[in-house]
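Hi P.,

Sorry for the delay on this. The queue was packed all week, but I finally got your sequence through. Input first:
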Amino acid sequence: MILNAFNLEGKVALVTGCNTGLGQGMAIGLAQAGCDIIGVNRAGPDETQSKVEALGRQFWSVQADLTRPDIVSTVVEQALAAAGKIDILVNNAGIIRREDALNFSEQDWDDVMNINSKSVFFLSQQVARQFIAQGHGGKIINIASMLSFQGGIRVPSYTASKSAVMGLTRLMANEWAKHNINVNAIAPGYMATNNTEQLRNDESRSEEILARIPAGRWGDPDDMMGPVVFLASAASDYINGYTIAVDGGWLAR
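Then the structure:
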């Protein structure tokens, strides 16, 4: 039965940045499909942990600041010490800094690039090595953005980092498919999260955004559940290097 292909019972997913928002929605969606969760966050994800455990799944917390790519190997070591294996990696952790390109600082550039693209690559590298050692492949799901496709305004490092995520997704898929590792990405549209609070509070800007979304609403973290479960499951075994837009039709307009 095809529905069996979506069953993630017995799998372990490592999800970065799952305290709130999209990361929390994806972690809960994976847990609903059968996954146990390793959450990697700067602070303890109390709410996410309680929601995952309420589903009868295990949750292990690893606290780490992913703006420091040098600690990636330690993150994987802690995850394996807790759960014993990793089957799925969701690279969700990310930040955004808003400023005109003429005034954008080097510090804001480095901070965003370090967590949004550099850590994504090196965490994926470490987990891919673990997948190969485990001998049965695995799934890597990166979180891209509408700005992987478009330029945007006032977010130069975010645009650069999310464009890099799309390119890295293709590169890693090309190299690692032979190891039975699927690497794909999800590009969320305009979602009601902390990152978009400033935009949603700007009435005229919010109206402009909503006017372009065919679905007529901001996205919700629950909208990410189906796509992440699909890409984490056997149902997507022949999908490699692709970025799925979950945007209410924004890119089609």
